[in-house]
Structure prediction request, 41 residues.
Amino acid sequence: MGTLVCQTCNSTIDHFEDEKVTVLYSTKCNGCEGHHTEEDL
Prediction:
């Protein structure tokens, strides 16, 4: 089982099937869009 995590707010975005436990970081989740500006990063 793999987990997709937002690297901006550290919330879980999605789970996916994988042979081993994996955590992948996305640049931005849907909840972050419009809430953060480039100055916040």
Summary: The beta strands are 2-6, 12-16, 22-26. The chain has a mean pLDDT of 77. Residues 2-40 form one domain.
